[in-house]
Amino acid sequence: MSEGLKHRIAGTIVLGILGLIVLPLLIDFADPAKIDRTTKIPPAPSIQPTELEKVQRPDAIEVTSSLQSLFDGGSFSPVTEESKSFGLDDNKLPMGWFVQVGSFSEEIRAVELQRQLSVDGYKVFKDKVKVDDEFRFRVSIGPKIDKRSALADKAAIDEKFGTDSMVVRHQP
């Protein structure tokens, strides 16, 4: 037997063995699963369609005098420059509202509360004020243009921190 023939026979045997290994992976020889094609849905009931009456649209709509008096243009007064603008004080400066959360004699406690409020997402600041010959550290959040939002923040802070904060108007 020549060398070339031996190589061809060995190659054929190797390819046959590889085919026997790979072929079962590629082809599924199992029987397909039997599917029950009978239905258990009951037949649809017979429904008779009903006729709907057509709605008649009125030819004209009457305007009543009571409605007309509600929208009488003569009862409105024009807006003038003297009208007080929303959110402005007598000096035409915007009114600001602060929520004073606490007043502490120790700066460390004020800084800790300031840090907690800042972590919660509030704009917080600390003031040093002199009250009765001693310095106090006030922690406040704000300013808020709308008093309602300041009151809402006060309620949330009082509930979370167990304080009795105050809503204070900004005095320029």
From TrEMBL:
One of its GO terms (molecular function) is peptidoglycan binding. The chain crosses the membrane at residues 9-27. One of its GO terms (cellular component) is cell division site. Residues 91-170 form the SPOR domain. It comes from the Bacteria. GO terms for biological process: cytokinetic process. Pfam families: SPOR (PF05036). InterPro entries: Cell_div_SPOR-domain, SPOR-like_dom, SPOR-like_sf. Keywords: Membrane, Transmembrane, Transmembrane helix. This is SPOR domain-containing protein. It comes from SAR92 clade bacterium. The lineage of its organism: Bacteria, Pseudomonadati, Pseudomonadota, Gammaproteobacteria, Cellvibrionales.
